[in-house]
């Protein structure tokens, strides 16, 4: 039996179905992240678990006991919110002590516990500072210590880092993970930031429109997204509507080109699919103008898919440089190359794109979704989609 079980939970607000028949199991000591776009129901799930909302249907079990209708103040949960929500007229130590005072512990014990907790979150020397004397990151550390003070069985974190700047976000998420592992704490963490979710979690529940799309370890979610939504939401990717040909032996038609993909014995010939290729699995090789037609496909065609194209955008991202390349068939590819390989490639440059069959993830793709994709882009459905929020900004026009 799982430590925390959500069984067929549903919650509506008027006509809005915030959560729909959600079933989820969280193990003791597990760090589970609810990931999804704004409005997909993440906060509502957390509030249902905390007892701030009542479910319309379904059950919540903690450690084998049903807590579905138990009031919030009688659930052993700690919560940290997006906004720091500290008491402004209390010092860091007094904030942490708040829950302990309610429990009528002795002042000596409370003081010792606060010292331990502030040390745990790296604020041993800030015990007597008021919230306005602390940075956003430090305030969130105090909020974390305060939530941990009452020794909750489950810690609920609702976008705790989203108000902080990028560098602090990364440091603090590592701290949260360290503390969670040190204490063996069970955590449900809410975020819409896929990179954060991949970095911090044991497992990720990807949500869309109140429903669970996929549940799995970060690597599994990234490498084997099971739905078109997950493939688009988690990680950058090239996504190309295509059609299977000789599915069982792994061929796929993309416009004029026949690509090699992993065999798809479950799918039939002629099925509409979405090809998903991660940017780091494609390589680019510079071509001289004349090479475009002289690419020797005969040797490497067995191992690699080869396409010619032209670099449209180059975006320096630090560790990698991201390229947008338009293949000669019109498809757009996103390609990430590490520093040295990227140096000589600039917009306007003709290139050879190469990626092995194993780099292609093949997802069933309904006709309606294909039409919607074509409609959104204003192009034929064979043109690759790069999600707008991850569209790189041009380094050179
Ligand atoms: N108290 C409420 N009254 C009415 N509608 C609500 C209420 N709380 C949530 N909703 C609606 O339920 C849906 C899910 O909201 P929820 O806050 O759970 O999403 P979310 O994934 O956490 O979004 P965000 O990341 O923007 O916080 C949304 O359509 C929201 O407008």
Topology:
Layout: E1 4-13, E2 16-26, E3 31-35, H1 42-50, E4 57-62, E5 65-66, E6 77-80, H2 92-102, H3 107-120, H4 136-149, E7 154-158, H5 166-183, E8 186-191, H6 194-200, E9 203-208, E10 211-216, H7 218-223, H8 228-233, E11 238-245, E12 251-254, E13 257-260, E14 272-277, E15 283-286, H9 291-294, H10 297-300, E16 305-316, E17 320-327, E18 332-338, H11 339-342, E19 350-355, E20 360-364, H12 367-377
Parallel strand pairs: 3-8, 3-9, 6-7, 7-8
Antiparallel strand pairs: 1-2, 1-4, 4-5, 9-10, 11-12, 11-14, 12-13, 14-20, 15-19, 16-17, 16-19, 17-18
Helix pairs in contact: 2-3, 2-4, 3-4
Largest sheet, in brief, is: 6 strands, mixed
Find the structural class using helix and strand composition. alpha+beta
If you compute it from the alpha carbons, what radius of gyration comes out, rounded to the nearest whole angstrom? 25 Å
What is the number of E strands? 20
Characterize the overall form: globular
User: What CATH architecture of the largest domain do you see?
Assistant: 3-Layer(aba) Sandwich
| Assembly status | single chain
Low-pLDDT parts are 371-397
Query: What's the level 1 CATH class of the largest domain?
Result: Alpha Beta
Helix fraction, binned, reads 25-40%
Averaged pLDDT:
87
């Amino acid at each position: 039996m799982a430590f925390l079980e959500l069984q067929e939970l549903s919650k509506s607000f008027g006509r809005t179905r915030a959560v729909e028949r959600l079933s989820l199991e969280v193990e003791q000591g597990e760090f589970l992240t609810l990931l999804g776009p704004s409005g997909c129901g993440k906060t509502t799930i957390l509030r249902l678990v905390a007892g701030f909302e009542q479910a319309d249907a379904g059950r919540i079990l903690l450690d084998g006991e049903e807590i579905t209708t138990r009031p919030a103040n009688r659930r052993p949960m700690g919560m940290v919110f997006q906004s720091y929500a500290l008491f402004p007229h209390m010092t860091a130590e007094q904030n942490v002590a708040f829950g302990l005072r309610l429990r009528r512990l002795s002042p000596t014990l409370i003081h010792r516990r606060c010292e331990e907790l502030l040390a745990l979150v790296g604020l041993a020397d800030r015990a007597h500072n008021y919230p306005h004397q602390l940075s956003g990151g430090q305030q969130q550390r105090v909020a974390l210590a305060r939530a941990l003070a009452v020794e909750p069985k489950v810690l609920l974190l609702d976008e705790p880092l989203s108000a902080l700047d990028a560098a602090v976000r990364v440091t603090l998420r590592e701290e949260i993970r360290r503390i969670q592992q040190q204490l063996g704490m069970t955590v449900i963490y809410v975020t819409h930031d896929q990179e954060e979710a991949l970095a911090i979690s044991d497992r990720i529940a990807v949500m869309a429109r109140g429903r669970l799309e996929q549940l799995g370890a970060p690597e599994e979610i990234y490498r084997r997204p099971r739905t078109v939504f997950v493939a688009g939401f988690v990680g950058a990717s090239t996504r190309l509507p295509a059609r299977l040909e000789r599915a069982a032996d792994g061929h796929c038609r993309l416009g004029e080109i026949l690509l090699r993909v992993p065999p798809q014995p479950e799918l039939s010939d002629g099925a509409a699919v979405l090809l998903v290729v991660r940017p780091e699995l494609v390589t680019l090789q510079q071509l001289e103008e004349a090479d475009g037609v002289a690419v020797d496909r005969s040797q490497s065609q067995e191992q690699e898919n080869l396409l010619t194209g032209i670099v449209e955008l180059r975006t320096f991202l630090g560790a990698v440089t991201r390229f947008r390349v338009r293949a000669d068939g019109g498809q757009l590819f996103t390609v990430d190359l590490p520093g040295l390989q990227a140096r000589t490639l600039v917009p306007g440059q003709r290139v050879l794109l190469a990626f092995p069959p194993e780099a292609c993830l093949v997802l069933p793709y309904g006709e309606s979704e294909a039409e919607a994709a074509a409609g959104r882009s204003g192009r034929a459905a064979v043109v690759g989609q790069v999600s707008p929020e991850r569209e790189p900004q041009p380094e050179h026009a």
